[in-house]
Design a protein that fits this description.
single chain; Substrate Binding Domain Of Dnak, Chain:A, Domain 2; 4 helices
Length: about 190
């Protein structure tokens, strides 16, 4: 399903930084857990030197190996997301700025990124865009508005496509990396 202008304009791009910080925090916490269990497991040889003790230590080593994969995946995701989110944030900000300019000119930005004249647009309305005491003919102002409208449509639709592409790439990456975690936790 393609992204729409209202959906993209509603995104809280500041939350992206919080998400990355939380991913890094969780990966660090898991890494501390791995270190602590590795230390405790190594110390258990002194008082738990039986077959059951060895089985327990092997189980902990297997779990720690899976957790190491999780930490690696979380860190890779955080690194990639930081880059993707920067690109997404930049495109969203461009689209927001363009939307404000479109509103300022009393044009309309459609859900799919087309810039249209408002219903009932009249050439006489174009006079309001002219600076006071301007000698610019109304036809020139209308041509400028039409040029802006055409360029703004291209820019808005390009932003939507770029955001959609980045969104798809990010989703694919997350799916691929999360599959690594699943394979580590549940080997076939």
């Amino acid at each position: 399903m393609p992204l729409t202008v209202p959906v993209v304009l509603s995104w809280n791009t500041d939350a992206l930084d919080s998400l990355i910080s939380e991913i890094i925090r969780v990966s660090s916490a898991v890494e501390r857990h791995i270190s602590a269990t590795t230390l405790l497991t190594a110390q258990s040889i002194d008082y738990f030197d039986t077959d059951r003790g060895k089985t327990f230590r092997d189980m902990i080593d297997t779990q720690n190996t899976s957790l190491h994969v999780l930490v690696d995946v979380l860190r890779k995701i955080a690194t990639v997301l930081r880059g993707k989110f920067h690109e997404i944030r930049t495109s969203v900000h461009h689209l927001r700025a363009l939307s404000h300019e479109i509103d300022r000119l009393n044009l309309r930005l459609t859900d799919d990124g087309r810039v249209e004249y408002p219903h009932g647009f009249d050439k006489r309305v174009a006079v309001q865009f002219e600076p006071e005491h301007s000698r610019t003919p109304t036809d020139k102002v209308l041509a400028d508005i039409e040029a802006f409208r055409s360029k703004a449509t291209i820019i808005a639709q390009d932003c939507l496509k770029a955001i959609g592409r980045l969104d798809a790439e990010t989703t694919d990456l997350l799916s691929t990396e999360w599959a690594r975690v699943r394979r580590a936790v549940h080997p076939s």
